[in-house]
What does this fold into?
Amino acid sequence: MTNNPNAAQTHAREEQAISSLGPSSPAHSFPHLASKAFVDAWPSAFLAAERATDGASYGYAALGDVVDRSLHASVAHLTGGLSPAAMAGAYWDWAVHLASSPGKQMQLAEKAARKSWRFASYAWRCALQPNAAPCIEPLPQDKRFSGEAWRRWPYAPLYQSFLLNQQWWHNATTGIGGVTKQHENVVEFASRQALDMFSPSNFLLTNPEALQRTFETGGVNLLYGLQNFLEDMERRAGGKRPVGAEAFVPGKNVAITPGKVIYRNRLIELIHYAPTTETVRLEPVLITPAWIMKYYILDLSPHNSLVRYLIGQGFTVFMISWRNPGAEDRDLDMEAYRRLGVMAALDVISQLMPNRKVHAAGYCLGGTLLAIAAAAMARDNDERLKSLTLLAAQTDFTEAGELTLFVNESQLDFLEDLMWEHGYLDSKEMAGAFQLLRSTDLVWSYALNSYLMGERKPMTDMMAWNADATRMPYNMHAEYLRRLFLNNDLAEGRLRVNSGAIALSDIRAPIFAVGTERDHVAPWRSVYKIHLLADSQITFLLTSGGHNAGIVSEPEKKRGDYRFTSRVDGEHYADPEDWVKIATVKEGSWWPEWVAWLTARSGAPVAPPVIGEALCDAPGTYVLQS
It folds into this structure.
């Protein structure tokens, strides 16, 4: 009990103030600190404030998305479209598992010691014997050190040590338990690219052939090399084609097979080629090229034009020429390419030549699109296809070669941000990825010849075509990479066309599939998987050469060979290794084999079709777009 009168007076004033707020609650008294109207209004005020902040949250989310995408796009311009996060993730996976594998470390240490001893022994023998046998041989496809000058001291030890080091790093980046296969491939590939930068063949003082050339010319080769380098840099900065490519112009000396553009929409021009025979096969041939490049890879110079060859064999030929998309086409998707491309062309042909089936052929990505269209047609009982030819075209992407190094969630997200900025993927980014896959041939060999030797290889029609790439719309390319490359939806039955699933097993038209032995874009074992997906009769042909040179295989070339078999009903599956052993081998071009296959599935010859009014002469306008 207090005796302080001031405290008593203060307590009395507090009681009076509290009582003035209203009756007290039996459980607690804090509600009396605010009026009832204020308490009742609080939930509504809270919801109103929350709604007010929602707009700001959406704004921040949109702003954050723009900031992230813009940053990623800026970085992508510096890295050539490669995601640093994807590369870091792969190396982290490799490094952590290597650090936790002492057994693997012991093996690598033992290999390093053994290779060091081999190299020391070789270097000693090489110093005493000018033509000492090398301690390691380069891979068959590696021609950098094939010259005789590399057998002499001190250049022989230089290239031998490089090869030993390269081999050790291959052992160090592969065969580590726990590392995902995709990460292992990325690390091995990236390490190989880094090592190739320091190859002794790339530097003047360590390249005996370049030094000899310099002594012979008095250094003139280096002046020419500098001129070549500056010219290349100027052209790349200005977005120009390589030196000499301007000599190959569609309609002038390439893509000159006579024909007319008979149809055009926002995505394609359809070319009908003029017949050169008195009669033609009943069924026409429709060719769907890849949209990543111009169509005239199949109509190059007159001597190596597949189109001209087909016409000379009595076929009516139609060709799709894709438009070079721009930013306004960013929302075009795979369905648009199917509907405005393959299906639109088929509809036009059906109108011009009613009641006739079509031999459809597709090259590379065009073949994949054609397979999708054929599966959808089979589902919908559309029987306009007489046969289906797939030229270096994949339908299963689980073994799609080194291109899969650039396809994972991190890389695709990064690439989508790059495409988001402009609305398309520029051809320069895609060309950079393909050059990395064959850097020894397309990058370092080119630099050696052009900049150290001072020589330029003469431009060819195929090299000029290769430099004439097209852009790819943002939506379509992102969808293509995710649904086909990453998720493999086509092979696994998840791809939907017009709201319905499609399956290649529904196709009943006979299939002629072509793979090429040295294909870095569509490895032939991946192309061969059509045997596992389609139930129709399949003829598979494997030709020598690469993705482009293997397809452009004119009969006059008189070199190369091919293997082929035809699957018959009830025949058991043979894997690629067994197939190579049982396939029939023939010398020369595969084109006559394909023509014989088409002829056997064609009706009796008839008079050439009469085509009405044309829009313009071949090669049309879309192929000239840059």
Observations:
- The CA atoms of residues 251 and 619 lie 6 Å apart.
- Confidence is low (pLDDT under 50) at residues 10-15, 17-31.
- The longest strand covers residues 385-391.
